[in-house]
Amino acid sequence: MNLAIAGAVLALVASACAGSESTSSSASVPSTVTTPSTVTAPTSSVETSPTRWGFVPFPAGPDAQSVGDVFRFVAAEGDLVAFHFDDGIPWQGLLEGSDLPPALVGEMAALRGFTESNPELSVYVATAIINQKRDAIPGSWRAGDPPQDIAGRSFDDPDVREGIRRWVRYLAKELEPDWFNVAVEINMYETAEPSDYPNLASLYRELYQEIKTAYPDTVVFASFQMELADPLAAQDLVESLDMVGISTYPYITGDGFPSEDYLDSVADLGLPLAMAETGYPAATLPTLSGVEMFTPSDQAAYVGWLGRRAESPGLAFVTWFFPTDITGMIDPLPAADQDVARLFEFLGLRSADGTARPALDEWRKLASP
Predict the structure, then answer these.
(1) How many domains does the chain have?
(2) Taking the model in full, what pTM does it have?
(3) Of all helices (H) and strands (E), which one includes residue 155?
(4) Which helix (DSSP H) or strand (DSSP E) does residue 296 occupy?
(5) What CATH number corresponds to the domain at position 47?
(6) What residues make up the domain containing 206?
(7) Roughly what angle, to the nearest 10 degrees, separates helices 102-117 and 158-175?
(8) What residues pair up with 350 in beta bridges, in sequence order?
(9) 110, 30 in Cβ contact below 8 A?
(10) Which positions ≥6 away from 268 have C-beta within 8 Å?
(11) Backbone angles phi, psi at 179, to 5 degrees
């Protein structure tokens, strides 16, 4: 099993949105979505924490109604929106200085429109600068492998480094994030390609310095996968991390519910922490150890666990994947693409028909929209 399980699912969902006949690529992130006047913020007698709580706005299905629904949900149920880019970069346009794909330009404009219409939401942007298998340079944006003249190169290649630098600059300029994860699950590459990892690490350090110089108020960091690689790879980058981003899906290995000290080894690095991506199932799912039974109560307990981790060791923000079960996205996919996606099918705080699960009540006790 390769690293970026979550990233692979996100790319499938994004591609489905972009390719759906019922919605244009720009409609996949509609700029007209705002918090409806009839939506009221969830209330709770529980005192809210300084932790920000939010979602990646991936829809339950590839239709325009699902897309609009998920952006309304994100605006109503949290105080952070997370934009996660893990489906390659537009190599040709970046390296040639030519026009970027119109679909990408349109989506960026729509994302900006959403954040401008919902200024109460903090903005978290994350980009992978390795491929979805976490064993090579990024592929082409929504087009699979990188171009032939780039494919097979390593992270010491000047063109590879420059293309990625331009991509990161582009995201920073277009989306102006409060938090910017410029290297999603970077430690997975150390596991896959240890001989080239120092080149990736040096590129990350350069990206950190460049973004901090241009945008000194932006919190810049990388994220580290907990289950499928060594998160303590972060200790070699501490001088270039404003915080440590954690990517964790504790159920995925079949090792059971996480312990209360699950994050302690990372916390011991002495840097602020953020839950860059996480989720927990509410129904039976395949895991890397076979099919496991999960219930809505298990999911609600995990949200409670996140609340306790927000208090100790402390989390700057929590990003949940996904707002609603993604069955409607998975079912239309080719059979060969469904197995990985099924690992994440029932992570929604709402079932596929939009019914809220108990975990959403727990979430509302913690969030402060």
Answers:
(1) 1
(2) 0.88
(3) none
(4) helix 296-309
(5) 3.20.20.80
(6) 5-366
(7) 40
(8) 324, 356
(9) yes
(10) none
(11) -120, 135
